[in-house]
Amino acid sequence: MENNKPKFETTTLWDFPTQNYGNTKHGDNKYPGVTPAFIIWNLIQRYTKPGDLVIDPMCGSGTTIDVCKEENRKVLGFDIVPYRSDIKQADARKLPLDNNIADFVFIDSPYSDNIKYNDHPDNIGNLSCEDPKFFKELEKVTEEAYRILKTGKYIAWLIGDQAKKKKFVPVGFKLYFILEKYFKPVDIICVTRHNQTSNTPLWHERARKYNFYLRGFKYLIIMQKVIN
Q1: 94 near 44, Cβ under 8 Å?
Q2: Collapsing DSSP states into helix, strand and coil, what is residue 103?
Q3: Which of 9, 26, 78, 220 could cross-link with 90 by S-S, CB 3.0 to 4.6 Å?
Q4: Residue 207 or 94, more confident
Q5: 62-90 tens-digit pLDDT
Q6: How far apart are CA 89 and CA 212, in angstroms?
Q7: What is the C-alpha to C-alpha distance for residues 200 and 102, in angstroms, rounded to an integer?
């Protein structure tokens, strides 16, 4: 990394061994399911310019805010239960924003109820992806993202699949088909997963013994809002 900046990615395979880059914190690497700062940095280099407004409706520990401020982008972060004071309280399905104001939207959403974020009754992460309601709620988030995004601008959504008790749910594919109803597909990035609790010798042995796969990547789905 030159000048403490990440590598500018040029392929559809992104592999970041650590959550952060440089000497400054971007988000909190102790936060459950924290977003890799490298992802935000790469996305805003491609799809925004200094002064553009980036909106993160599920801001988590604030990674998007930290990276955008450092890169001279305007930024608004929301969460159902804000983790810190510069994250505004709001539901990603009903944001307190005008139409067509965002130059870029980034979402790193739950992909089931596998991570305990909080006990808020409206938290989508408390729904299992095996429940059809989960995808209905993700579609509401999609509709809201479409509403706030300017025409011609881009959205990126990070999400993973679930394999639990020998039942596989292709969450990424299901979300892709929802997004495609509203946006024009641009590309899909494969982001290598690191530091998940299943990445241990015990779980690798179980995967061999019982013939199943551990989750090794997440999808980063990139789409554009165009005039229909």
Answers
A1: no
A2: strand
A3: 78
A4: 94
A5: 999 999 999 999 999 999 999 999 999 99
A6: 39
A7: 40
- Of 131, 205, 127, 219, the residue nearest 175 (C-alpha): 219
Q: Alpha helix locations (H) across 71-189? A: 132-148, 171-180
Three-class secondary structure of residue 81 per DSSP: coil
DSSP state of 3: G
CA distance 161 to 134: 13
The predicted model scores a pTM of 0.94
Q: Which amino acid is at 15?
A: D
Question: 109 with 58: CB under 8 angstroms?
Answer: yes
**Residue for token digits 């993160």?**
56
Q: Which of 39-53, 105-119, 177-191 has the weakest average pLDDT?
A: 105-119
Q: Copy the structure tokens of residue 216.
A: 């090794």
Buried b (16+ CB within 10 A) or exposed e, 93-108: bebebeeeebbbbbbb
